[in-house]
Amino acid sequence: MWRTLLALLLLVGVGWGLWWFASGRSLRQGDDARRLEHAVRHVLSRVGAEHASLFWETSRDGLPTLVVHVTPEGRFSARRLALELEAALHNLGGELKELPVLEAGGYGRAGFRGVLGKAQLRLVVLQEAVATPAPKRVVNKGEPGKLAIVLDDAGYSEAVVASVSLLPLPVAVAVLPNAPASAAVAAALRVQGRELLLHMPMEPESNGEADPGEDALLVGLGPEQVRTRLEKALAVVGPVAGVNNHMGSRATSNRELMEHFMRALSGRGLYFLDSRTTPATVAATVAREAGIRTLRRDVFLDAVEDEGAVRSALATAASLARSKGQAVAIGHVHPLTLRVLQEELPRLSDVMLVKPSALAH
To answer: What is the pTM (predicted TM-score) of this model?
Structure first.
């Protein structure tokens, strides 16, 4: 009898200890999360970004993560934000690190990852607000939402071909015409039966910070110069189904240049995907006026190089596909993005992957 009682007491003690440990960890995480959010909100108000979007999510390792999306207004300085945020976290015993910006053509401005105790921060400065799913509507009862995914910036290395081959066939790839291995990469992807796009280099807002490369479309070029550069690019990449812009935040907002470009593009049977690297883009509008089948990017999967950000963006793209009936997501042939897609695409529910050409109209 006494042995049974002792075993029962031991079980109660172990259970109480586990509860105490879990409760203490939860309280510590909660306290760190409150301190982190208070510090971030204070910094945002100081730098004129108090209207930023903030929400909490749980990371894959179970830690609370504060996600912040900043859309610049007025005389906003990403540099000042970084300095003030770094100082604020340092004073609380935390740290801040800058994230590489993968979409540097105008949309992605800056990214940061921070840690404060048991709470994490992921802050991204974007040129426009992140798309949010609308209330779900019934497009066709029982029919899944359609999601098209395009991976940009192929052409630098043939090694990417093997990684892309592990993704579902509807995932399309946009190949640069001015990269070292453009022709070889395009040919190898074509053997897979992969839908290809010409990733046409275009001038960004700040050519000094982000260089689109040789033979990019620049504001001020005449119609024949534009046609020559397009035809040269198509000759390098080979047969494609469509075209989208590489960078181009300045180029796609210039109506005259876009009119020259769409006139050169029309009549070739190709669609145009507006990557929307700037909210001021007129590319899709001008393409439709020229009778070109068109679609627009809804979500950037990897504006910054961060696994949590890529997973979250893919979830947003899938939600948009379900709520709107269709969505277009753009990422890059970056190892991190490819790995996340390999893991997450088989898990998507109520979403059907389609080629971008299936959504162009």
So the answer is: 0.82
